[in-house]
């Protein structure tokens, strides 16, 4: 039975929240533990669904995973790794996109991998063609079946010279996790260089991997026969930080985001200030607040790092509904990341979505019928409504719109939010939000 969140809007969010370890690093760091021949320890692990999915998959493959009840630190011992039954792995089909990253490590330790149908957010087709292409370049043989994909490498994996069609985060991770123990040298051009990728590289380096990052998105890896376990503290979640920052602006609040790191949020902070939001960088986090007065509209394009990240777009669009004038947003990373604006319009926002590229950043979606540009007119008074959460970031943006709106909203599908925001209901309550969580007709918190 799903949970229902009732939100009585109009309350400025005020107080302190601490961001957890990055959702877009931690599950991949867990996969990397399979590459070592001794246990790995991962610290700053958030309590989110992707972590429990990957933990189950590691356990299915014989990795002994234990968690410190006080700190939440994970210890992963891969010394008895083994093949799991396809049926057991298949039970995780649709849960997460992380399983595709098991390919390289499983081939290195077991000679083969089975990957169930993949889940993840509904924000476009999210294909895995780049992943399969690079695995083939490493010498893997890919068999696509109805239940999933079987990958084997009878001769093992060999280093390759790769040029990615797009600086894809997941594909770059696939390359790293495969190349570190492949025979010989790998060079990947047009690689992603997001902070989460650099943190994964740092962790692999601790394991003994030989990796160098060069100018112009080039990464070189010299394969080694053996790696040891790591002891690593995950970088803080910059997407969660940006989400709370937007929540402060939208609700005219004042939120100190403990552990938010300026270094990984430069593009976001620049835009935040342009809109009229204020922030104060402290030694242990960043205070985000609405200084009063009008917010400014702007022209915004999402891009790969160091550009304005696609995951920051949806919460910020809600802030733009409160700006005085016309804002234009061009989404260049995903072809279908404006679906969430339909609910915002029901709440009173004025948003038009367009198939044209409303910006100059090179984009793969122009003239292809994808509604990937948006025009937002503000300011408007938002009003509460019924919302069914469509995806992680779109869902968070619905929550903050409901928190700012006049009246009551009823939100279903909030389990999706648990994929990326740990303890979010508790955090909302600690910030003074007037919310109630119901399960099967029972009120469990307010
Ligand atoms: N793409 C392909 N083929 C592929 C792989 C990617 O066409 O084989 C396309 C995608 O469809 C997309 C673009 O390349 O249009 C970029 O995708 P990328 O591979 O970079 O994304 P990802 O690795 O699947 C991660 C994050 C996303 C984040 C993106 C971009 C994780 C688990 N997910 O996805 O996070 O938006 O990078 O930075 O790390 C989120 O946190 O809400 C989220 C969706």
Automatic annotation (TrEMBL):
For biological process, the GO terms are: cell division; cell wall organization; peptidoglycan biosynthetic process; regulation of cell shape; UDP-N-acetylgalactosamine biosynthetic process
The residues the record assigns to binding UDP-N-acetyl-alpha-D-glucosamine are: 97, 311, 333
Q: Where does phosphoenolpyruvate bind?
A: 23-24
- Its name, as the record gives it, is UDP-N-acetylglucosamine 1-carboxyvinyltransferase
Spell out the catalytic residues. 121 (proton donor)
Out of the domains of life, which is the source?
Answer: Bacteria
Stretches assigned to the Enolpyruvate transferase domain: 9-428
By which gene is this protein encoded?
A: murAA
| Source species of the chain | Glutamicibacter creatinolyticus
Question: Lineage from the top down?
Answer: Bacteria, Bacillati, Actinomycetota, Actinomycetes, Micrococcales
